[in-house]
Amino acid sequence: METTLTVPAESAAGSPAVPAGQLVTVRVPATSANLGPGYDSLGLALTLHDTLTVETLASGELEFELSGEGAESLPRDATHLVVKALTEALHRLGFRHEGLRITADNVNPHGRGLGSSASAVVAAVSAANALVPETSRRGRDWILQLTSEMEGHPDNVAPAIFGGLALSWQDSDQYSSTCASVAASVIPVVAVPDYELSTEAARALLPASVGHHAAAMNSGRAALLIHALTANPEFLLPGTEDYLHQSYRAQAMRPSAELIGALRRAGHAAVVSGAGPTVLVLANGEAEAREVVDFIGAHTAGNTPEVGWRVMKLAVDVEGAKVEVHRR
Fold first, then answer.
1. Does 20 lie in the same domain as 161?
2. Do residues 106 and 155 share a domain?
3. Which of 67, 75, 128, 320 is deepest in the core (most CB within 10 A)?
4. Cα(48)–Cα(30) distance, rounded to whole angstroms?
């Protein structure tokens, strides 16, 4: 599909255009945020990748080829999140584009709590950064700032950028993140239902405040979770206990909440992935991962046959966003 590309006046005026013929590819992992008690602060990169290729054109047109998740519903014009984020990133870098040829292959399910919008903005901003001359490029910390601003928080974009387990925080309008290595025995298993839940709808269910006792309990579990993920996975079950958000969101994703409850009663560290409705289980070793896959199949067949579930045994992505510049 081709359409005339409208470049914002403020980015076009006085800014040089990126030369035509620049071609970059970005591969970005899906992410799971919160991980139970780490609300808006913890995120894990997963081996489920979207791929974005961007080529600059001499014409003022946008060519957009989209395949995979969202191919039937997402726009293929300047309103697409990738185009908006890429255009804004170029503007922040002091450039504009004449036209674009974009190819997006989406593997990450949309509206399921696996950071699909974060993957899109990280891919777009990373591509923009690679398209400009080398002397104008910025580091990954700059990408973190801009993408966190676009998303409103860093919990998904940080692991998408850096890989691994990302611990993020905010001071005023400054976003920061550091990464930790996850123990080799930790295996993420996701159960993705066939219904969606928007982040906005999930956040709207949260109370404006929680009691001091709940906050204190949650702090202890978040600290324990980092120890469990990085050094001692036998504490994954108590470390993933949450007191801030999951119970309030359960009404909007009842099949997922019931599955999480059943998994935890069986001794597995199950949580809501991000805002949901995907269920994430942090298994300790291959044997437990296989047991979790079988448990999910049996539970959902007997209790939620009306819901379709896609169960995937993944791994922790340790590289984050990978950018390849094909030519310049």
1. yes
2. yes
3. 128
4. 5
- 122 and 36, same structural domain? yes
Residue from 206, 195, 203, 28 nearest 112 by CA: 195
Residue 26, number of CB atoms within 10 A of its CB: 24
Q: Which CATH number belongs to the domain containing residue 29 in this structure?
A: 3.30.230.10
Domain count, the chain: 2
The answer to whether 42 and 227 are in contact (CB under 8 A) is no
Distance of CA 117 to the CA centre of its chain: 7
The upper half-sphere exposure of residue 228, i.e. CA atoms within 13 Å in the direction of its Cβ, equals: 24
Q: Which domain holds residue 13?
A: 2-176+316-327
Ordered per-residue pLDDT tens for the chain, 328 residues: 333 333 443 445 578 999 999 999 999 999 999 999 999 999 999 999 999 999 999 988 899 999 998 888 888 888 899 999 999 999 999 999 999 999 999 999 999 999 999 999 999 999 999 999 999 999 999 999 999 999 999 999 999 999 999 999 999 889 999 999 999 999 999 999 999 877 777 778 877 888 899 899 999 999 999 999 999 999 999 999 999 888 888 888 999 999 999 999 999 999 999 989 999 999 999 999 999 999 999 999 999 899 999 999 999 999 999 999 876 5
Do 310 and 192 touch, CB atoms closer than 8 A? yes
Is 181 a member of any domain?
no
